[in-house]
Write a structure and sequence with these properties.
Radius of gyration: 22 Å
Strand order of the largest sheet: 4-10-9-8-7-5-6
Helix content: 25-40%
Number of domains: 2
Largest sheet: 7 strands, mixed
Order of helices and strands: HEEEHHHEHEHHEHEHEEEHHHEEHEEH
Distance between the termini: 26 Å
CATH topology of the largest domain: Aspartate Aminotransferase, domain 2
Length: 441
């Protein structure tokens, strides 16, 4: 079990928390008062020597585990040779572009390298607008594609909209299939006939000015609460957009590189997006993102029309290449599927015992646990979710602060290197933490 050696937060942690409070803006999201000092694999050590099992992956970043020796070795080796040279070609950049194309579906034949998930979203928006006669983009309620203006505009998350004034024109939004809380009041994908997709035509008829160019969606809605569309939804969406003659942008910033039990989440479905945005787990801790795409879209961009100061820099490219090599060599995609199923089964069984565990959903090593006051009302239990996460912290399990449209969803997303022993330990801690939170409710 994790080793807790001081009262939490410890004295050094309190010192740094006070420093952060004084010198950093509060725009940074709240997390438990865990001040990281180092981490290895799936174990975090804070500045006071306390240890925590990691259910966060540093917010879905460190897919290959923290400070993987080979990952660190390749970063060090590249740092000793070259850090950056802007648009000049380097061997790591060319090698990474080739690798991304090789491991993706055959029809995706180009890779544009940038730095963050928001960068990738912005690049994808510019690409489809350049390659299509239209300029309107359809997004979905609850979507999070980044915090920059274009990314926030295509997304529809209150947290990145409120208080910032007018958004980018040409963004149309429609309901996402949040079946546990169906926005159309239906909720059973087996019988509803995907009315949320049929509603797309109504939204377009009322909001579009006849200039549609693309539809963009996450493979699962991460920030909205790890919301996973029902089987068949993606295939019908792909068919719908083909009938409309528009491009399909799939946001895989969170879901790629083994996170859902496939190298890319799109492999779960028979779909053919024109552009796929990648990030987070691509660099496994180093800032690196990309847009995978077709020549049809990317060849519409003339030389010099897009670039990035740090995009495809040698050290990030070397880190991404090492990360992909580790994922392949250590069978982390398979481990994600196997460990994720163990966690899903255990939490589903736990759901039968606690009505406050309203919904358990997931793919591979990303799961969402929706906390409610009771099974019948489904009233979001935001405070209970926060208490469970806090109890996890006190018991040695690091979780991301509750997410979702109502702030009541606990996200389970450990590094893909997690072992079965660590899975079982973390589940024991979660069960104890849930009991403690309910007892104090």
């Amino acid at each position: 079990m994790p080793k807790i050696v001081t009262e939490l937060p410890g004295p050094k942690a309190r010192e740094y928390l006070a420093k952060s409070e004084k010198y950093e803006p509060r725009s940074i999201g709240y997390q438990e008062p865990l001040v990281w000092e180092k981490a290895s694999g799936c174990v975090i050590t804070d500045v006071d020597g306390n240890e925590f099992l990691d259910w966060s992956s540093g917010v879905l970043v460190t897919n290959v585990g923290h400070s993987h020796p080979y990952h660190v070795e390749q970063i060090k080796a590249q740092a000793e040779k070259l850090l950056n040279c802007y648009d000049f070609l380097t061997t790591p950049r060319a090698d990474l572009a080739q690798k991304l194309v090789e491991i993706s579906p055959d029809y995706l034949d180009k890779a544009f390298l940038v730095t963050t998930g928001s960068d990738a979203t912005e690049a994808a928006i510019r690409m489809v607008r350049r390659a299509h006669d239209g300029w309107e983009i359809i997004g979905f309620h609850g979507a999070f594609h980044g915090r920059t203006l274009g990314a926030a505009s295509v997304g529809a998350s209150l947290g990145v909209h409120a208080g910032y004034g007018p958004l980018v024109p040409g963004c149309i939004h429609a309901p996402f299939p949040y079946c546990y809380r169906c926005p159309l009041g239906l909720g059973d994908p087996a019988t509803c006939g995907f009315q949320c997709l049929e509603y797309l035509d109504w939204v377009v008829s009322q909001e579009s000015c006849g200039e549609l160019c693309a539809v963009m969606t996450e493979s699962y809605q991460g920030g909205a609460g790890s919301i996973i569309p029902p089987p068949g939804w993606f295939e019908q969406l792909d068919q719908w957009r083909q009938e409309k003659g528009i491009f399909f942008i799939l946001d895989e910033v969170q879901s790629s590189f083994g996170r859902t039990g496939k190298m890319f989440c799109m492999e779960h479905w028979d779909i053919h997006p024109d552009l796929v945005t990648l990030g987070k787990g691509l660099g496994s801790g180093m800032p690196c993102s990309a847009v995978l795409g077709t020549s049809e879209v990317m060849d519409a961009l003339p030389p010099g029309s897009m670039g990035s100061t740090f995009g495809g820099n040698p050290i990030s490219s070397a880190a991404a290449l090492a990360s992909i090599e580790i994922i392949e060599r250590e069978n982390l995609v398979e481990n994600s599927a196997k460990m994720g199923q163990i966690i899903l089964d255990a939490l589903t069984e736990m759901q039968d015992k606690y009505e406050q565990l309203g919904d358990v959903r997931g793919m591979g090593l990303v799961l969402g646990l929706e906390m409610v006051e009771d099974e019948k009302s489904k009233k979001p239990a935001k405070d209970l979710a926060a208490q469970v996460v806090h109890q996890c912290y006190l018991h040695g399990l690091a979780c991301i602060a509750p997410i979702g449209m109502f702030g009541n969803v606990i996200r389970v997303a450990p590094p893909l290197v997690i072992t079965e022993e660590q899975v079982n330990e973390s589940l024991e801690i979660f069960a104890a933490s849930l009991e403690a939170a309910l007892a104090g409710a």
